[in-house]
Specification:
three-stranded antiparallel β-sheet; 305 residues; Ribonuclease iii, N-terminal Endonuclease Domain, Chain A; 12 helices; Double Stranded RNA Binding Domain; mainly alpha
């Protein structure tokens, strides 16, 4: 990653040829459509502004949402609307799309500018998710909804199956609020601090329930940090309800100012996870990926042919 070399597009992209991706996708998409779906704005900005994949991304997002929603509605007739909404959000969120894109090795096919290439753009979740949506949009344009729907099912049916097993992990903040309401503990309150330079912010969240600090988390966004904190608090309350005095240890650590990821009650929170129902959440602490380069100034896009 970060190595700049000549490639199939005649520029600096060290990636695979789009013809190979057409074979992987198994759909009769036109080469020109696929080329556009793979063109990131950073490449366009450095190469006389050819059409980018952003309009196709907009379309593909809706096609993906429609197919996933229809699948959930028909496949889970007994689930209430709220649970269906949680499932859909888990399936179409950026992280899930990026993982599907990685399974396709989609990053190797994207046309990127030099700046994005050398800063690891081929593995950025935002770029991968957007490009996958653009590819779905292009398939819809060239091949119709039936073919696009079949592609979405091939790629996302396993994601839907995994999401149905997540339980509380579909949305930790909502699950925590439901849990605290059921135990009449009060409404969770979040305190978030940010650190780092503007181009690589890091967020640290602490959640309080009934005035007690019950969890903390960190992430590259405020939402991600709050979700991690909610997960820790949910596990702590669940474990305490089962007779494990985790929250008391967290209170003590908070009083000592040591409630930070990797410190204080980490062992207690690990015990909580061991003694509570596995909700399928992923562990935090992975290395942060570099941010996407700032969007270049807009310039008129050539009319679509």
């Amino acid at each position: 990653m970060g190595v700049v070399s000549r490639s199939w597009d005649g520029g600096v992209n060290a990636g695979k040829g789009p013809a190979e991706l057409r074979h992987v996708l198994g759909v009769p998409i036109l080469p020109a459509s696929l080329d556009r779906a793979l063109t990131h704005r950073s490449y366009a900005y450095e190469n006389a502004n050819p059409p980018t994949n952003e309009r196709l991304e907009f379309l593909g997002d809706s096609v993906l949402g429609l197919v996933v929603t229809d699948t959930l509605f028909r496949g889970y007739p007994n689930l209430p609307e709220g649970q269906l909404a949680k499932l859909r959000a888990a399936v179409v969120q950026m992280g899930a799309l990026a993982e599907v894109a990685r399974e396709l090795d989609l990053g190797s096919y994207v046309k990127l500018g030099r700046g994005e290439q050398v800063t690891g753009g081929r593995n950025k979740s935002s770029i991968l998710a957007d490009t996958l949506e653009a590819v779905i949009g292009a398939v819809y344009i060239d091949c119709g909804l039936t073919e696009a729907s079949a592609l979405v099912h091939r790629l996302f049916d396993p994601v839907i199956a995994r999401a149905t097993r997540l339980g509380a992990g579909l949305d930790w903040k909502t699950s925590l609020q439901e849990l605290t309401a059921g135990h009449m503990l009060g409404v969770p309150e979040y305190v978030v601090e940010e650190s780092g330079p503007d181009h690589q912010k890091s967020f640290h969240a602490v959640v309080k329930v009934g005035g007690r600090v019950l969890g903390s988390g960190q992430g590259r966004s405020k939402k991600a940090a709050e979700q991690e904190a909610a997960k820790a608090a949910w596990n702590a309350i669940t474990a305490e309800a089962a007779g494990v005095p985790v929250a008391a240890e967290i209170d003590a650590a908070a009083a000592n100012g040591d409630l930070r990821p990797g410190h204080g009650p980490a062992a207690a929170q690990a015990d909580a996870r061991d003694n509570s129902k596995d909700a399928g959440g992923q562990a935090s602490g992975s290395a942060p990926e570099p941010p996407e380069s700032p969007e270049p100034p807009e310039s008129p896009e050539p009319p679509e042919r």
